[in-house]
Design brief:
With 353 residues, this protein is an alpha/beta fold. It contains 15 helices and ten strands. A four-stranded mixed β-sheet has the order 8-1-9-10. The protein has a three-stranded parallel β-sheet with strand order 2-3-4, covered by helices on one side. It has a three-stranded parallel β-sheet with strand order 5-6-7. Strand 6, helix 11 and strand 7 form a beta-alpha-beta unit. It binds ligand V47. The site of ligand V47 has 23 residues, from strand 5, strand 6 and helix 14.
Length: 353
């Protein structure tokens, strides 16, 4: 059976077939992905009102692609104390944020207490806010630095008020590329193991893929296949988020950046391939808002959120430092022909605009 018919019949694609999807033209891929997206969600596009908090940029690990961590290229170290973090959280909640997305660098100076205490204090101050925090890379860092098992770290997160895990730290699972990009950080197997353990606790998480640097199309497919396999077993992933590599202020020099076509193809292929992950998120901070709006026609049904402040991608050149106004965000989704739906962090619908 040909590839297009197989997709339309909802038959699972193997690795070879998945790689061959990239050989289809963009419009065919877009049409196939859009059919799946529309069957699932019609014209609804999800987002949430969230606040990203990046409490420290002091990092014990070195990732070539990272412009956020303090280094030769970014000598301005900072670490927020708990009062600062809680104060940001309170203000965000007053401004309507329902989710705090908290991601830190791997700071070896302040101990597990600094990480966990922040969550505990936010939880005490704001009992109802959703805390999405701790990438698997951070979990692995606390394990390496303080001799805690993954189980211990994950249980501490739950005890201190973390609700769900973000999808960061996945980068590209292929071991050779990973070694080149971020040697010493959480390995692919460890990343998957940590998410498995989190899901076994009845908790949900997301999964990212950093692309558009030195990886090949086959590496992207391999990445998605590993996620599809784990999701078959646990069902705990809510969203897949292809992150487009941002090139400024870091140590990863890339000969050629992905075209808009390649980015849209990757969104579409992820929608087709990841038949068991409910949502595909076009994270506008890395795709640009313009391409994220178009990605809605290429399989993406989620645009993340208003963000408010963001330090990781903006350090590398993205236009996300100050988030987006809710009215503008909603208007852009509407003008693109979609129905903005505010959701909570676990995709319960809160308001249809
Ligand atoms: O894992 C670092 C990425 C990630 C660069 O779960 C870069 O809802 C592009 O995981 N260019 C952290 N990306 C952010 C993240 C995330 C974002 C939005 C939503 C969710 C979610 C998770 O940022 C890291 C890394 O892959 N990153 N440097 C860069 N130069």
């Amino acid at each position: 059976m040909d590839l297009i018919a197989k997709v339309r019949n909802k038959e699972r694609l193997n690795r070879q077939e998945a790689e061959a999807l990239y050989d289809l033209d963009l419009y065919t891929l877009g049409m196939l992905a859009d059919e799946i997206r529309q069957q699932k969600y019609g014209k609804k596009s999800y987002f949430n009102i969230n606040r990203h908090i990046n409490p420290t940029n002091v990092c014990a690990d070195i990732c070539k692609f990272c412009a956020y961590s303090a280094s030769r290229k970014n000598p301005n170290q900072y670490t927020m104390d708990h009062e600062q973090i809680v104060s940001i959280a309170r203000k965000a909640a007053e401004n309507g944020a329902k989710e705090l997305h908290i991601v830190s660098a791997h700071n070896p100076n302040d101990g597990v207490e600094w990480y966990m205490g922040a969550f505990k204090k936010i939880r005490e101050a704001l009992p109802n806010i959703h805390i999405k925090a701790m990438t698997a890379a951070e979990v692995d860092f606390l394990h390496r630095q303080y001799g805690l098992s993954y189980d211990e770290v994950l249980d501490m997160m739950i005890e201190n008020g973390v609700d769900s895990m973000p999808g960061g730290g996945a980068e590209i699972f292929d071991e050779e590329v990973r070694e080149y990009l971020c040697k010493g950080k959480v390995t692919s197997d460890q990343w998957l193991k940590i998410h498995r353990k989190w899901h076994e606790r009845g908790r949900e998480s997301n999964a990212t893929m950093l692309f558009g640097h030195v990886e090949s199309r086959a590496h992207r497919i391999d990445h998605m296949m590993r996620l599809r396999d784990l999701q078959d077993q646990t069902g705990g992933f809510n969203a897949f988020i292809p992150l487009v590599y941002q090139r400024d202020n870091n140590f990863l020099k890339v000969p050629e950046f992905p075209t808009g076509q390649e980015i849209l193809k990757t969104y579409a292929i992820s929608r087709i391939l990841l038949d068991n992950i409910p949502h595909i998120k076009a994270y506008w901070a890395t795709s640009t808002i313009n391409l994220a709006l178009i990605a809605q026609e290429f399989g993406a049904d989620d645009l993340d959120g208003t963000i408010e402040k963001e330090a990781i991608q903006s350090a590398a050149g993205a236009a996300s430092a100050n988030g987006m106004k809710l009215e503008d965000f909603v208007a852009m989704i509407k003008n693109a022909g979609f129905t903005p739906v505010e959701r909570d962090s676990l995709y319960n619908e809160l308001k249809v605009y």
